Amino acid sequence: MKDAKSKVNGNGDGLSVQDIIKSYDEIWGKSREEETSLGWKYDQGRLHKTILKNLKYHDKKEKVKILEVGCGKGDLTEKLAGMFSDTFALDISTTGVANTLDRTKGKVNLVITDATRLPFKSNFFDIIICSEVIEHIPEKKKVILEFNRIMCKGGALILTTPNPYSIRGYCANIVGKLRNFQEEEQQIINELIIPKTFTKDLTNFFYIKQTKGLVFNLPFMEQIGHFPRSIQQILLFSNRISNSIEERDKFQRWAQYLCFYCIKK
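Above: the chain sequence. Below: its structure as tokens.
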């Protein structure tokens, strides 16, 4: 495990680097049972399925170098390690990286660092995955510049982020204004990306081949077996409707998450 220490660049009035790392160490130090809500487990599963589906465009038998930025506890990293022989992953949390190391059994090259100063040489990676991470980073443009630097020409960037224009996004913004966030919460949550601004920054270096809206489904579908049969039928009917909505381009803007599939210029 490599330790590439660097500072997290904030806007000057947030938490210190040590405080941020401590916060994420606490998050990734929780057991799998208590670490997250049922709804997020379901959403995360949907995101990972879409990311893995995008990887079908790449020949996994070739010597492909792939990097996951923000590996957390290694849920997605474990899957990538089974698909690619040359997999890298990083996180700012020592605890998260340690958990990922344990889960991947040494099959992944792991680095402790933040995304604004990546300790890799230029034109090194063929694929970069950054899922539900960039919205937590104040200096998003620096992250995009680093992705551009370390990626080979024609390489693929798969990036997901919450959609502030979704129904849940609007609700979160309202709640955020009403609640008196603690400084620690505010630093971790940071600001949601505004898609128009973000896509403009992306297109300076990448062709956006696909933007897909994800998650219209009910968050408790994975526990459907615990409901009475009559409720199961209602949930299954609702799920079929939500799945059909997800496939329609005109509804993408209302999705809970956005997934960008990009190719470096």
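Residues 229-246 form the longest helix (18 residues).
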